[in-house]
Amino acid sequence: MTIVRDERPVSVREPREVPHPEGLAVSVRSLTKIYRHPWTLKATTGLRDVTFDVRRGEIFGYLGPNGAGKTTTLKILTGLLKPTRGEARLLGRDIRLVESRQDLGFLPEQPYFYDYLTGPETLEMVARLSGLGAREARAAAVEWFGRVGLGDRPRLVLRKYSKGMLQRLGLAASMVHSPKLLILDEPMSGLDPFGRRDVRDLILEQRERGVTVMLSSHILPDVEALCDRVAIVMRGALERVATVGELLQGGAPRIEVRLAGEPVIEWPARFANALQRTSTGGDTALTLHDASLQQELLAWLIERRIVVHSVTPLRTSLEDLFMAAAKDAAITAASTRRSA
Amino acid sequence: MNVLLIAHNTFREAVRDRVLAGILIAGLVLLGLTRVGSALAMGEDLRLTIDMGLTVISLLGVLVILMVGASLVAKEIERRTVFNLLSRPLPRPVYLIGKWAGLSGALAVVSVVLGASLAGIVSLLGHPGYVPAIAQATTLAILELALLTSLAVLFSALSTPVLSALYTLGFFLAGQWVDDLRTFAANLPAGLRELLRVLADVLPNLPLFNMRSLAAAGEPTSALHLGLAAGYALLYSGCVLALAAAAFESRDFK
Lengths: 340, 254
Hints:
The structure holds two protein chains of two kinds.
Chain A: E1 24-36, E2 43-55, E3 59-63, H1 70-77, E4 85-90, E5 93-94, E6 104-107, H2 119-129, H3 134-147, H4 163-175, E7 181-185, H5 193-208, E8 212-216, H6 220-226, E9 229-234, E10 237-243, H7 244-249, E11 254-259, H8 269-272, E12 275-280, E13 283-288, H9 294-303, E14 308-314, H10 318-339
Helix pairs in contact in A: 2-3, 3-4
Chain B: H1 2-16, H2 19-38, H3 45-67, H4 74-78, H5 81-86, H6 92-124, H7 131-158, H8 161-176, H9 178-186, H10 190-202, H11 212-216, H12 223-249
Helix pairs in contact in B: 1-6, 2-3, 2-6, 3-6, 3-7, 3-8, 6-7, 6-12, 7-8, 7-12, 9-10
């Protein structure tokens, strides 16, 4: 787990009074986590005043770079960390109550199991801990062991499992008791492309069943393909919550213009600032960052008899937006430090 | 019954990691060796066999507690296997009690097998009359080990495996001397006397579980002694586990 160092004095302000509306799968209000060094008592902020909701039945992506506070949030929600301030509810139940985890399935960032158990034994034990009866748990364990593609080696003890196999078992362990809410920390981590596809299918299948999924991931194309809404967390604070569509529409459109050969061009000032030039395989690719200049640029190129091979509007990816948000957050933090 | 689930799994861990098998084999070998040593004990061979046999049961149990019990919870935190358990509707105190019950159960099985073996040796030597006293002494050893396991769980929930082994060993050694501590305190100035008396009350009263000399003489102890020892072990373990639960409840798992 990674944390963000915060040099500012720790505030003792009470959390804002924001109600928890009914019918939410997850509601988080002013959640704050401050770690204190056991000897020096120096405070380090892992999470600062985070508030967001996850609606029932949606797939909610929780994104951020390393150390942003993703794992801290997920561990607070699942009872592994205690919040310094703020509150949260899972399916309407306060996270301070053990019952809040009754209908929860959780996959930690790296799932760890007892290495002396076999896969089915592990699944049976965790299913029973989540409230299933002995017979029911045994049947569910066998079923899920097969569903995650491990069914051919039921007698293998976990110390002989590969990282990918453990990840698959972790997914099965999070779903074996048919939870209503799944919290998955980096579910694609350690999986090959086939494994990632299987996990994507599994998550979509759970959504079809009405299960709410909250997941954190570094693999942004997967998040883009899966999630209904996305929250971006940076340096322990929530930057933005929006649908994937809203986020992508918000990005500035760009145009790629491909030219034949590598012509020597002296750009006028109005294009020079909006263009980025790269050479690939004997051709030239121009990326125009201001789409309003597209017609003017094309006319200018044709006038000079420069051969244009193609004109392609570039789609803004979640990765681009994510990188832009990270850059903005870094600039804001730097200016805050300077003004302090 | 999540306590039983955790206890069963802790027991299963001890069996599959071959801790129990190793300790049982070591115990049986040592019981055999007591016969070799007793041959040199001119006329006291039976007494020596029983005394040394019961000591083997207790000390091997303490060794298991130091090796396994002291890392019982700390190892799970270090290896993060605890994430998979505590992110489920499992109250933390239930988890701790389950760990304690599982290891205490495993130690009880080892003690019963070794105690029965000792009783078998003594019967084969033609002294079946000593068996009831051996059974009682084994029962007291099981209670003593359960109490020490609760201390190991407490320290293991709060510190590293090495430190919790050292603390547990410290309590085991100090617990052997509580009667002497009280006697010693009686001769000290008032303030210090009270301090040592409180310390003697806080430390586990382990002489209560020691009837090796009685058993070696073939004399059974009273039902009252057994009842008192069982009550004390349960009460002491309960208090220690309550303390462990209170400390563990607010612990963060990073």
